[in-house]
Design goal:
By secondary structure, the chain is of the alpha/beta class. It contains 12 helices and 15 strands. The strands form 3 sheets. A 7-stranded mixed sheet has the order 7-6-8-9-10-14-15, with helices on both faces. It has a 5-stranded parallel sheet with strand order 2-1-3-4-5, with helices on both faces. About 45% of the residues are buried.
Length: about 400
């Protein structure tokens, strides 16, 4: 309250008491006490109004990073778009605990330094929770930052095993070891082949981690790995030598645990050689059908492990795919689906915690972590999705096969 107003109230009260016959000392004391009481009451009213106004304007700010430019832009774009659909749905339904959600995204170019810069840019914009990053290398660079800030982070698609070591970091996708293990398990269970050839990128932790766990589980499952060939980031355009050795070894199926850009070259060169085995990939293969200048007929029969199949007929998938196509003009991949599920998992954890946007980043992180073990979510990438204390998702894998230029869910 302004000083002049307090003085005026005091004077008015004093005059009123004097008119009633009170002594000057009593008059002055009573007037001061009355004025101070009224001032305190008005201050409380003003504070309550300010709090109400702040609450009405408060929003959740979720942020993410991923490549929006470069050769892996398809992944970051899918994450950005998939999360946007979830945010729009949540806001239309009233938000989270009554507060709307603001979704912001930065291009990290799938780099390490650029990822840290993107993270800092998101913090400057008020990010409270992070969905990302999209790629494993960038995620490994950023987790040190989120751990220092104690900001909750859930990556839709960072697969490197070490990502979830900090207590504040979770993931929606399978880790590299899990992908390798689940791939061998799927091939053996469905009796796709018994003689396996492998080509992997020995310079990439994603590819190497999947291969190592695939090899171990293949042995447990009675699969014979008849040839293992590798390449590096410095030599990833000609695979004819590797393919010839695998063909000579009698492989019936070739396991390709790396990204779709290099995989498209493998498929093209195998076709030119007349080598026609089964090909099986992992989540990095998703996107091969959208690669410019690639003859998608070469991918017919290609199988890949994935948590999401766009041709599924359940209501949630149909709704998501329809919205995605209407807004972005293409069929969503598993990265988009994982990001969508990340947003809804955060919603559930925040609601379980009873959290509000006025909480500090650190307090919000602690509240979410405390509830992640209680989350059980039916989403695009699995039913009854739960999370371990180590930050890993517990859900069943799916596999799709490319038929007539589209992904078809395998039984």
């Amino acid at each position: 309250m302004k000083k002049w107003r307090l003085a005026a109230l005091t004077a008015m009260a004093a005059m009123a008491l004097a008119a009633c016959g009170g002594s000057s000392e009593e008059t002055t004391a009573a007037a001061t006490e009355g004025a101070e009481t009224e001032a305190a009451a008005e201050a409380d009213t003003e504070a309550a109004a300010e709090e109400t106004e702040a609450a009405e304007g408060a929003v959740w700010t979720f942020g993410g990073t991923g490549p929006l430019t470069g050769t892996t832009a398809i992944y970051g774009t899918a994450v950005m778009n998939g999360a946007q659909i979830a945010v729009d749905e949540i806001n239309a339904a009233g938000g989270i605990n009554g507060y709307q959600v603001n979704w912001i995204f930065e291009d990290d170019e799938a780099g390490t330094e650029t990822a840290v810069n993107a993270y800092n840019a998101l913090k400057d914009q008020g990010m409270q929770v992070m969905i990302g990053t999209t790629t494993s290398g960038s995620c490994m660079a950023v987790i040190a930052e989120t751990e220092t800030d104690n900001m909750f982070q859930i990556t839709p698609s960072g697969t490197t095993a070490d990502i979830t070591i900090p207590a504040n970091v979770y993931r929606m996708c399978f880790s590299d070891p899990a992908q390798g293990t689940k791939s061998a398990e799927f091939i053996a269970t469905h009796e796709l082949a018994t003689k396996i050839g492998v080509i992997y990128d020995s310079s990439d932790t994603y590819s190497t981690g999947i291969y190592e766990n695939f090899a171990a589980e293949a042995q447990n499952r009675g699969l014979e790995v008849v040839a293992v060939e590798s390449f590096t980031s410095e030599n990833k355009t000609d695979f004819r030598t590797q393919l010839q050795k695998i063909q000579d070894a009698g492989a019936e199926l070739v396991f390709l645990p790396f990204y779709y850009t290099e995989a498209s070259l493998v498929l093209r060169q195998a076709d030119e050689m007349g080598f026609d085995p089964l090909f099986f990939g992992c989540d990095g293969m998703d996107g091969i059908l959208t690669l410019p200048d690639f003859d998608t007929s070469l991918a017919e029969g290609l199988m890949l492990l994935t948590p999401f199949a766009a041709d599924a007929t359940d209501d949630l998938t149909v709704s998501f795919v329809t919205q995605y196509q209407e807004q972005f003009g293409e069929v969503p991949n598993q990265f988009a689906a994982d990001a969508y599920d990340c947003v809804y998992v955060l919603k559930q954890a925040i609601e379980l915690a009873g959290a509000t946007p006025d909480m500090s980043v650190s307090d919000l992180c602690d509240a979410i972590v405390a509830q992640m073990g209680n989350v059980s979510y039916d989403g695009l990438t699995g039913a009854g999705i739960q999370f371990t204390e180590d930050g890993e998702p517990n859900k069943d894998p799916k596999a799709v096969v490319i038929e007539n230029g589209a992904y078809v869910l395998m039984d």
